Structure prediction request, 481 residues.
Amino acid sequence: MCGIIAIIDDQPVAEWIYQSMIQLQHRGQDAAGIFTYDPKTGKHFLHKNRGLVNQVLTPQTLPLSEASWGIGHVRYQTVGDGSIEDTQPMVMGNDPTIALGYNGNIVNYLPLRRELESKGCQFQSNCDAEVILHILSSHLSKGRCSFEDIQCAVKEVYRRVSGAYSVVATLTGIGMIAFRDPAGIRPLLYGTQKGSKAVGFASETYALIFCDFRNLQNIRPGEVMFVDKDFTPYRKQLINQSPSYCSFEFNYFAKPNTVIEHHEVYEIRSNLGKTLAQKVKASGFDIDVVVPVPNTARPAAISLARELDIPCEDGFVKQEYIGRTFIMPTQGLREKAISRKLGPVYSVFKDKNVLIIDDSIVRGTVSKKVTFLAKRAGAKKVYFASTFPPIRHPCLYGIDFANQDQLLAFGRTNEEIAKEIGVDGLIYNDIQEFVDVIGIKGLCLACVNGKYPTNTCGSEELQKMRQKDIQTVERTAISGV
Ligand code: 5GP
Ligand code: SF4
Prediction:
């Protein structure tokens, strides 16, 4: 998973891009990068590196400039071993130079890469975004960059690339393009500013609202948008397919104040708590206190506790500056981080029957740890509830639960999962309840029902490669390089 922001304006944009990247930091913490372009001088600038936005972009590395077009990217690594070449924006060509930022995961990356290499394409990285860049770049060149040419290039991407991809790209001297895969798995929207020429694109609403963009609209699944150098916008629906929006964006990934497909994420999470409350009532569990795992599960825990008329307490203190642990690229790093990240408040747990609420159980790292902490703090009984249904299938689209055998719910009944975590009772929202709460037709639910919305050719090979990359990252982290 990643976050992207892009702005085309006639005023300097670097500062706005930087600030919006900070707003998107929760979507990726492995690396950050910015590309800017000044159409008056033709100069462009690229800086990217591993690390958080404010570590990578400093007054030394991001000089204030007059550049009025730009792309920013925060990366959560799912393909590649994390080297700087694998970070984004990725840049190719001279006339025009194409700088691209993308969010998603390409399922047929390896076969497609081999095919492109056999036709002479030279790859600079192990990042899957590069296959899209090669396809675009082979179709777009000086004198061949009209909106018709752009449509042909994007159609070619649709024809050859399967997976999830929301893309923004700057074509220097020409304009900016944005498109979303035919199923629209990852979000992408755009907005305009009152009284200015600027057009902005981003993964989440707040990154645009924060920069005063209004009139926000989705780039639709299968749609391409082009804003030319005179700020004239063009849009075209290239493929009409039913959408499959990632349901985990609502449940976990997006910020609570983000609006996806006209639904506010906070409100959805709060409603997911209400449905869990009905199941807790039916279970007959005797509960003294509800405790969320901070922070994603808080809206659900508050509404669940309100429905049941039970206190909701902040029983876990989170060490804020460690970062999101799930996003850590390897299980070893995740376990280390989580053990340093949460601490129990003893008075909340001592001699109580506790219901812990979390948004999901993936590998079980967090659920096992918080259960252990609650018991160590003196809880009599510990129950656990997850707003997301049991995850039994890998995500092929950029959320890092790639291998089935890593998933705690794979091959286990709810009773067996409860036993593994060490809780006295376990409740999940089931798939239909979850879908009813979100209230949107066209959700991807592949990780819970195994129905993948795209061709899955190449996925096994990709998962094997990911395993290898994880070992490299782990070795690098252990040796402290
Ligand atoms: P587990 O510990 O079971 O492997 O993962 C579930 C936990 O990770 C939950 O506490 C949830 O909040 C968190 N989580 C789930 N998905 C993601 C994700 O994509 N990114 C991050 N940072 N955390 C996640
Ligand atoms: Fe989202 Fe799950 Fe679909 Fe992956 S498989 S895109 S996490 S809903």
